[in-house]
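2024-03-11 09:14:02 DEBUG pipeline.ingest accepted 1 chain
2024-03-11 09:14:02 DEBUG pipeline.ingest length=117
2024-03-11 09:14:03 DEBUG pipeline.predict start
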Amino acid sequence: MAGEPQDDCLFCKIVGGHVPATIVRETDTTVAFRDINPQAPTHVLVIPKAHYPDAAALAAGDPTLAADVLREAQSVADEDKLESYRIVFNTGPGAGQTVFHAHAHILGGRGMQWPPG
């Protein structure tokens, strides 16, 4: 069921404190932590504590929670003093999503190329 923790989800395990992560911010509804394979000097993931498989499901199921994720993305950028940064939501395996729990990648601290990927 959407929103409920999933036993086989890595990010649900991080939310539950069962898998360690370098947490940089936490609110009642979100957790932000450093990516274990950073692609930029700042590479932080912001996830909702509730499980939604991807950004589309999150937006449809709980728009307020989706907005919380975006607000926390801005807070991460502010804390890392980023003037420019990229927010990436990969949705589906063809887009590079490998953990099927909605999450935003906050990337900054270096120039970004366009188009990405």
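2024-03-11 09:14:41 DEBUG pipeline.report DSSP finds three helices and five strands in the chain.
2024-03-11 09:14:41 DEBUG pipeline.predict end
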